[in-house]
Amino acid sequence: MVQFKNMCLLMLTLALVSLVFTGNACAKDMIFNGSIQEGDGYQINTIVIDVAEVFVSAESCVFKVYDEGELEHDKLINIDDTITFTAEGETIDVTLLSVSGGTLPQATVSITITDDDNIYLKQIVDGGHEKATFPGTPSLEITKEVSSYTVDQGEVVTIKVTARNKGDGKATEVRFSDPKPTGFILQEILLEETGQLTIDKYETRTIFLYKLQANEAGTFEFQPTRASYSNEADLDFPEAVSNIPVITVTDTGKNAKKVAELEFSTSIESSSVKRNDEVEVVINIKNQGDSSANGVVLNIHLPEEVEYKGSNSNIEIINGMPKAYLETFGLDQEKEIRFVIKPTELGTYTITTDYSYQYEDGVSPDRQEVTGEFTTSTIDVARGDLDSVIEQPWYVIAIPLLIIVAIGGWLFHRSRQYRF
Amino acid sequence: MLNILIVGNGQCGNRILDAINKEAFGGKSKFAKFYSQQKYKSKVETIAINTAINDLKELSSTKAKDRIHIPHLHGVGANRTLGKSVFEDNKSHIMRNIEERGNFDVGFVITSASGGTGSSFTPPLIKEIKEKHDFPVYAVVVLPFREEGTLYLQNAAFCLKEIRDSGVDGIILADNQFLKQIGGNVQSAYNTINDMIARRMLFLLDALDSEMMMVTDLGDFKTVMSGGAGLATIGFYEAEKGMNIKTTIQKALSPNGLLFSTDVYKEGSRAMVIIKGDKSYLSIDEISSEVEKLSSSVGHVFKGIIVRKGEAPQVLVVLTLEAAEELENLYSVAVDAIHQEREKKTRVEEQKEIDKAFSQIDGLEPDY
Fold it and tell me: Which fold has domain A140-250?
């Protein structure tokens, strides 16, 4: 009974040891487990493991390991023996599992690697290393050239971006990005390679060729042109980045931005008026800038207690609001917009007008828009001439009215009497 | 209070009637009718009758209800025969209009002797009134300018005669020819004549119904008007500043004050002198002196004095005539005019030979 317990304990210990060793073996990635004929090889990236000779009777095999055609290892091993070497920074184990005869003898092998993340190519190569092909390593070098590094404002510079593949492999799936610099206006694109490109090894190609106009004065650091690419084995390579040109733009003043600067001023016929009197308001507009204004819109905001009575200028009432629209307003042009209002209640009022207009500054592609508002001086509204009458008792109004009506009636009656 | 009827016949009668109505408003302003009342002392009814509607329309101070339009084209064209026919056709309408206004104490019919409607309506109208009423009716007749034309002159001659034969109680003459001395243009001269007659008429109406210091009344007026040859005229004068009453009376009897040219002291038959004004001006000695002077020539003179405080002296003289040399002159001219018209008519009838020339193509049609 005791022996049986010791036996079970021993078996449990062996099982745990077996699990520990099994766990160590599983730390490597299996990349091949199969038969390879004599004279053929197995390629891992640039490494080719040739099965050089198979000795069936001796249950052994000669393996030769080449790295890009260069012999690195040459070893005869028996069944269950393993060749271990380092390549691509990883440890590769090649274990001979069995050999077999036939027209061509073959060896059954297993190949493991500590980490297969960097493996981009693994395959049996008929004819061994002599027949193996290698995808190569592309290396792109991007150059960004400018026609002049010091220009005047408004001057045009030509930008040329070229890419050279100085690696030994074809660059595939090449994509370029070329952000345009601030302070410049794109004038013309002479050449632009877009989409996915392929650049052969040692090839130099012009990718972008375009013209920029210096828009603002200052020193401008161009953003680099970038390219992502892969090799023929779809291995992505680090992004290629161009140089960063720096251009200094000097301000000559010749190409300075133009501005339409409308100056608004107001005047009121009288700042003190009586209720229900009509008052003329004048808006004077003058263009003091050096560019014409377009689409000048004036929205006149009248207080509720002030009625709009009319205008001899082109003011329209839209949604109850007086609006003036001037299609263009030239350099040094002056204009008066006159309109008449009638305050209906006592108080102090101002009239605010908001305005907007556009102009072309001669530099920017888009029109510049200007908005703002201005306000008149105050209008003091006092009691009207008739206010004191209206405030009188009814009979003060009624009696004279009755007298007037009576006189009118009498005159009418008399004229009827004498009209034949 | 007297009830007085004043009828204005024809354009001239209408205008004089309108001038009386305007004068009654007491102001010269054309707007006086709107703020003033007519200042008739008596109850006065005025009626303007005309066949020309435009003549009625131009009246300004006569009420519409007092204008009677007799529809006949636009007047009778100075044709008295036609005018009398039109009157006959419309006399019931005219008389009804007069009778609707009540009873009267005296009536005046104002007309031009020479025109169409007035000269032809007035004689039968007066006759109708006299036949149906017993109040006295006096005609105020305006004689034409002598150069106004033969038709007007013959109209005046026949009209005046017919009025005299109509039973009228007296004819007060106003002579345009005599009043020509006023001068000015035609329009202002007519207006002035109308105003002169209106002012005298209004003074007379005022005098007939006023309380007086020395009384003259309708009875006296009737007596005066019944004297002489049934013809009368009126003299009037308003004293200028500083003028005494004696001079004023003399001025009223002078050619400048009279409506008809006459020698007062030679042709006058009876007279009525009415003096109005502030008593300070009314010197009884001066008045008596002048009245006596007049009465020594014409016979009887009725004298009335109306005292009006603050007013300048005014004198109105109603004078009936025994003879009227100027009227004889008028008829002499009128007879010539009648002969001229007759000769003209004869010549026209003789020229009817021309009609024979035209009659040669009677019944024929042009052939093209």
Answer: Immunoglobulin-like (2.60.40)
